[in-house]
Model the fold of this input.
Amino acid sequence: MSKRTGSRLDNASLVTLGAERLAAILLEEAAASKPLKARLQAALAASAGPDEIMRLIDRRLDVIAKSRSGLGGSKARELGLEIAGINRSIVSELSGADPLAAVERLIRISGMAGVVLDRLYENSAVLDKAFGSAEDASIELAGKLDPVAQCRLIPMLHAAAERDRYGELRGYLGAMIRTLSIEAASLWMGELEKSLAGQDTHRPILFYLQSLARHMGDVDAYIRFETAKPESHRDTFSAAELLLEAGRFEEALLWVRQESKGVRPVERNGRVLGYALGTHAHVSRRLEAEILDALRRRSEAQALRWEEFAETFDPGLLKIYIGKLDDFAEFEELDRAFALVDASDDIVRALDFFVAWPRLDRAAALVLRSTGKWSGWSYEVLAPAADALSDDHPFAATVLYRVLLSDILDRGQSGAYPYAAGYLAALWRLSETIDTWPEIGTHRAYIADIVKKHGRKYGFWSLVPKEFKGVSGLMTRDPEPIDNEGD
Done:
């Protein structure tokens, strides 16, 4: 039987239609599609040279930039498709003839995003994607320009940074910085420094200056810009990290030990991660230990790591600590660490540590001696712990699964009912491996209790497999019909 090839949409098949037939189809479709019409016009303009393509694109971008009317769902989609079509025309038709002009227009489109998106009545994924595509294409093409051409981009990039009052362009312009030659980066840094003179040092301009300094490998400039910030806004961690990478260990230690006065934002590479009150963040202490190691102050570094571990129970940090000990000292220190965790009143954090290390025997022992103290609110730790304990420590896993299941049902958390059904299935499987039930009551008794209390929570029971729906069914493979209506 011969293959059907007549309707295949590929280059060879379309050629068979002939130029006149294809032209007629395209004209018909272009009448109903602005993006297609614009794409065809750009392709035709390309035959007249890049100036004609630029004129065509600029004219349409001028119209979009001047418009101020609100954008509903259909209009937003239509505009998003049009901008996406303009992007394609720039990349396919203009970039080959005039790469610099192509990047300039893509930067212009990217800079229009804030104004256009402010006109939306509701979010538009099509518009977001169109502007994102313009950003990605401009970054890629800018990286291919020679240093002279990149320098000609700086006025546009600088104008965008000047308009960026709240840092919404940090991601885009930060990525653009990483594509620049040293010549272009140096030129932009000079322009930004002029803008910074006498201005508010909270502005994102400092972020761009520091990004340029890092890109150029100018550590002194980076530190100078960091010092220009108000003390409460300094990103001391990034400054210390950069100085450590540069081998300037004493300076790095001074920066990592700086404490701000009062409540301050904790920043990392220009992003606010949270707030702290005049204390070292845990991550800063770990960096401080690295710096002390670089300064060959090993005992201080290890003491700091132990202090940090005692507060966090971070298994990764303990591994670093153990790895830097003398031969044969690790066993004693591991016992010391495990004893510290075992003695902690924070049983959730202790359980998390033993599961992650892993020491599942210690995790199981902790679960069993703390029966009655666990709370379903700690599900992010208890659920993976129960899963990890299921194979070798089914009784401890049962304790945790019961806590998780009962908590969801007691609070009537309908959104979590699918998880609860999974916990119920896990309990049924585990019950077949357990012979005795000290202290916590048998599986049959527990299931009877939840059916009595929650038998009318139909949203939950509808998710339970049919063979598990009765008390007997939850404990045997041959369920017996029972009355399971609760209060």
The first strand starts at residue 263 and ends at 268. The domain at 230-343 is CATH 1.25.40 (Serine Threonine Protein Phosphatase 5, Tetratricopeptide repeat). The CA atoms of residues 134 and 306 lie 49 Å apart.
